[in-house]
Amino acid sequence: MLELLLILLFVLLIINYALGKREILSPAFLFTLGFLVSVAWAYAFRDKWGLNLKIETFWVILGGVGLFSIVAAIVSIFFMKRTLIEGLECDNRYEISVSRTGGIIIIGIMLVTIVYTVFEVQKIAPSGSIMGSIYAYRMQTTNITTDNASSLVLPKLLALLRNFTDAAGYFFAYILANELFKRKRVNVVALVITFLSLINGMLLGSRTGAFMLLLSFMIFLYIMYRASSNWKKHLSLKMLGMIALLFIIIIFTFQSFAGLLGREVGSFSKANYLAIYFGAEIKNLDTFIQAGQFPIRPHGTFGAQTFLEFNRTFGKFFGSNATVILDLPFQNINGLSLGNVYTTFYAFLYDFGYRGVVLLVILMSFVSQFVYEKVRHFTRQGDISIYTLIYSRIAVCLILSFFSDKFYEGIFAITFIKTVAWWVVLRWIFVRNRVGILK
C-alpha cells in the first residue's frame, strides 16, 4: 500500500503541476509535495519501523490530498473566469520607504524583546546557561500538562512584544527581498530586523519559526520574479536547481542546528534523525488510525486539537473551563523514537473523525487557493501586499502539513490575526502615497 501511495502521490503532483500551469507555488502543488516527500522517507524506513500501511491510512492521505487538489482547481477556474473580465490590476503609485529613525526604533523594540524573553525563559526554566534554559523550557512545553501549563505562560506584555517582533520580521523580509530583486542591493536596516526576528523566534527552543521566515523570504523573491512578468515567465532549470540545493543544505544542517539550541541529538545518525522529522509522521498516523479511538472530545471541548488557540482564548465563553493542551503522545518502535507528530490529518480525525477530514480539507484548500489567487492577480508593484504576506505563511503551513496541523494552528489563530494587524500598521507607516489598507 505504501508503494502504491507513493506512486499515486507522484502522479497527483504532476497533475497539479500541469493543471496549475507549471506553478510550483500553488497550494495544491505545495500540499502534495510535502506528503510525497514524507511518504518517500517512510517508504525508505518501512522495514526498520515495521510500517505496513493500513487501507484506512492510505485513503486518509490520498483522499485528503486529492480532495485538496480538486477544491483548489475549482477555485482557480472561478478566478480565471473573473480575470478575463476584470483584467490584472496595475498601480505604480506606491513606494516603500524605510527611514533610519523608524528602523532604529523597531530594532530597539526587538532588542528589548530578546532580552525580556531570555529573562523570562531563565526564570521559568533555570539553568547554568542561556542555551540550557532554552532547552529546558522547550522540553517543558513539549511535555505540557494541565498541571504545568499555567506556569509556562509568558507575560502578556512579552507575548505582545514577541508577536510584533515576529510580524516585523516578515514585513521587513519582504522589504529586503524587494530591495534585492528590484535594486540589487541589501537594505541593511531590513536585514538587521529580519535577523533579530530569526533570533527571537528561536529563543523558546523551536526552529520552526526561523525555518518559516527563511522560507517566506524565498517565497517573496519568487512572487516578485513571477509578478514582474505578469506571471508569464517561469523559473529556469538552473534556478530551480539552486532552490533545490538550498533546501538540501537546510535539511542536512537541521541536526547541527538543533545542537546549537541545546538539544541532545548526537545519539542519532543523520539519516535516522531526518527520517523522524520527514517520514515518521506516516507511521505515527497509521498507528493512531489503527487504534480507531476517535473522534475524541476531552472535557467536551470542540476542536481541541484543530482549533487549539481559539479554545484557549474563547473556550471559557462556551462553557469550557478546562485547560486545552496538545495531545501528542511520543511513539516508539523497536526501541526507536518516532517523535510525536502525526501529519495534519491527526487533528482532524482526533476532533471530528473521517467527516472532519473532508470538511476541514475543503475549507483549508478554499482559503489557501483564494488568498493565492489574490496574490497572483491583484498584487500591486511598489506596494507591500498584505495578501502576499498572508500567503507566505499559508504556503509554509501547507508544505509542513505532512508534519502537523500547521494550517489551523498557525492561520486560524488569534496570534495570526494580531500579526496581520501589525502588518497593516507597518504598511501604513512605511509605504508612501497610501490608498486603502488591504491591497
Automatic annotation (TrEMBL):
Source species, domain of life: Bacteria
Keywords annotated in UniProt: Membrane, Transmembrane, Transmembrane helix
Residues annotated as transmembrane: 30-46, 58-80, 100-119, 186-204, 210-227, 239-261, 352-372, 384-404, 410-430
UniProt xrefs under NCBIfam families: glyco_rpt_poly
Protein name (record): Polysaccharide polymerase
Organism listed in the record: Lactiplantibacillus plantarum CMPG5300
